[in-house]
Amino acid sequence: MIGGMIAIADAGYIYGSYVLTFVVVGAFGWRAVRQGRKLGEQIDDADKYWN
Question: DSSP string covering the chain, please?
Fold first, then answer.
């Protein structure tokens, strides 16, 4: 019974950690894509070997 109480008491920290992780990773990904698009606009189309 005590083991279940500990798991319930810690559930908020566990879920909060998951939410925080997804927010940080999502923000990093969004910023990386935004910066990539911004830098991609500065390069001539002829120099973009990936196109």
Answer: -HHHHHHHHHHHHHHHHHHHHHHHHHHHHHHHHHHHHHHHTTS-GGG-TT-
Residue type, 3: G
pTM: 0.67
Report pLDDT for 29. Answer: 98
Residues in the chain: 51
Kindly state the tokens that stand for 47.
Answer: 């120099």
Backbone phi and psi for residue 48, each to the nearest 5 degrees, phi listed first: -85, 95
The torsion angle over the Cα atoms of residues 35, 40, 43 and 49, rounded to 10 degrees, is 130
